[in-house]
Amino acid sequence: MELRIDQLDFEYASRPLFRQYSLTLGAGVTWLRGDNGAGKTTLLKLAGGALTPHAGHIWLDDIEVHAQPLAYRLHCYYCGGDTPQLPWLTVREVLDMHMSLYTGAEVDALNRELAAFHLTPALDQPVTTLSLGQHKKMQLALALSLPVRLLLIDEPFNGLDVDAVAYLRQQLSAPARLARQVILLTSHLDPQLPLTGSVQL
Predict the structure, then answer these.
(1) What CA–CA distances, in Å, run from 17 to 41, 110, 172, 197?
(2) How many domains would you assign to the chain?
């Protein structure tokens, strides 16, 4: 299990952010650190295929994001803070839409995560009615249940209550998960997880 970024270039409006940037990560949790504006969220989106690098390559095992974009994205999930641009959908509909995209996704696994995050009563609410914490829990429930090789999580603890933080740490520390997934997360605070490594931008 390996994420490999090779000679990556990316910029916003002629502001260079990454120049010839390379990084290789194996299974387990890597903490991505850096000041605001250093490019942490951008790197997660590049690794997840949501942004296109101006040069370089990104590989997940033997799948290159530009050569096989669909295959690549089916093996990764980006869990960020963005609200889904589908305000007419309920929470259940948003989740069903995502589950239908991933081969091997199990409804029972998702239901277990939703129950653990106390989100089951909100399934029939419009997604726009969720609080910040509930929205984060919805994304995290998906992230923890999907059978992906690469999990990208932007500030996972923001907006969560104490019980949810403890549960998330427990799930991200599970030995079986650490052995089968490359997990790259950003956090302004020490995530208090068994880390494979940390990367400073």
Answers:
(1) 12, 36, 29, 22
(2) 1
Mean of pLDDT values over 74-98: 87
Sheet containing 63-64: order of strands: 15-26, 2-12, 55-60, 63-64
Band of pLDDT at residue 86, cut at 50, 70 and 90: confident
Output the domain CATH number for residue 9.
3.40.50.300
Cβ count near 156 (within 10 Å): 24
> Is the pLDDT score of 124 beyond 70?
yes
Cβ neighbour number for residue 157 with a 10 Å cutoff? 18
Does residue 83 carry a pLDDT above 80?
no
Q: Is the pTM of this model over 0.90?
A: yes
Q: How far apart are CA 38 and CA 36, in angstroms?
A: 6
For residue 101, give the 3-state DSSP assignment.
Answer: helix
Q: Where are the beta strands (DSSP E) in the chain?
A: 2-12, 15-26, 28-33, 55-60, 63-64, 76-79, 150-154, 182-186, 195-200
Query: Which residue matches tokens 């653990």?
Result: 116
Domain that holds residue 188: 2-200
